[in-house]
Structure formats: structure tokens, C-alpha cells
Amino acid sequence: MTIITDPLFYALAIPAVIALGLSKGGFAGVGQMATPMLALVMPPLEAAAIMLPIMIVQDANAVWVYRKDWNRRVVAIVVSGAIFGIGVAWLLAAYISDAAVRIFIGVTTILFVAYSLVGMLRIPREPKHPGVASGVFWGALAGFTSTICQAGSPPYQMYALRLRLAKMTFVGTTAMVFALINWIKVIPYFALGQFSTEGLGTSLALLPLALAANLFGFWLVRVTPQEIFYRVTLAVMLLISIELTREGVVGLSQ
Hints:
Blueprint: H1 7-25, H2 34-38, H3 44-65, H4 72-92, H5 98-117, H6 132-149, H7 153-160, H8 167-191, H9 197-223, H10 226-253
């Protein structure tokens, strides 16, 4: 089995995979730091391609664990939009700047988090009926950014958090949405030639650690109170969005 042997790669890959496992366990957004970390030592699409097989296995695990806790309407709406976004990303992948995408999604999400924290945006206490138009829009953006730089979580959460779903329903719905998105992304990644023997071997080598972190994430979500869960989610979104914006600015300035 051929794998990447650069020690610096693993110094970044190990915390990235742990974060990804926690994300798939239910702390949506945490895993979004995985690809940007690996992108420090390799092209972003190549880094994303290494993460994708790991994510697919973790997705299957998460879908099984949360198989009874998901909102079918939300999944149908978001994934419908995501298919369009993935298609656009496929067409533009060779031309669009990762830095520009990171700045856009980072700034948008920072504004959303700030708006929420100061109380200007009232997230309802009870679940609300998912809107189709807004869900398709944010789903398309999630599919696009997920394909380009594995940053699909903030657009999805811009839609899903406002629905104020029950904690486990939110987690299960998120697991189902990204399981489907990640399987769909296999097609453009394969067509773009991003899968390699070395990359797939490296994915396999990292998989045990990823699954262990995944199991820890399942436990952590179940023991975390709902209000704290939402606060943690917003805090994680803010931190990741700041980092995405910083990376984007640095990337454009180079």
C-alpha cells in the first residue's frame, strides 16, 4: 500500500482527522478545519480527496447511529439544492479561487453568528416548517463550497439552525445531508482525477483514528445539553469562519 510519508503531513492530518471524527459524531462544523489544515501542505482539492473516503465511512456510521433522528423534508430540500451546487463546482473547479470562496463563506457566516449572538436574529424555540426556496439556496451553496474546499457546513447551518430542530434531529439530519452530498461528490472528484493510489492508501491509514474520534463524538453529543450544544455550534462556526476568512485573504494576497 502506497501512502504519503511526509511527517509534516501527519502532524496536521492527525488533529484534522480527530476534528472530522467529532464533526461526524454530531458536532457539525468542527470537521471543517480538516481540509484547510491539510491544504497547508498540499493542493486543496487533493487534500479534500484524501478526506472524502474517510468522510464517507464516517457518514455511514453516523447515518446508522442517527437513523431514527432525521427530518426527511429538510434532507430532501437541502440535497436538491446541493446537487446543483456540486454541478456548478465541478464545472468551475479548474478556474475558481479557493481563497475567494473561503472569504465569501467566512464573512457570511461571521455575520450570521454575530447577528445571532447580539439577539437581532431570534432563533425560534420550536421547530419551524422548512422553507423550500431558502433551503435550496443554502443547499446549493453548501454543495458548492463542500466540493471546492470542504466548507459545506456554514451554509447548511445558516438554514438548519434557524429551524430550531431538536438536538438529535438536527444531528441526524446533518449526518444524512452530508452523507448524500459526499457520495455525490465522488463523481466530480473522480472526473477531475483527484483520487490516486497514494491518496487512497493514506485515507485507509488514517481511518482507524477517524472512526475512534467518530465514536467519541457520538457520546459527546448525547451528553451535551441542547442549549450548550447550540452555543458550542455557533462558537465553532465563528472560529472556523474567521480562519477561513484569514486563509482566503492570505491566499488572494500571494
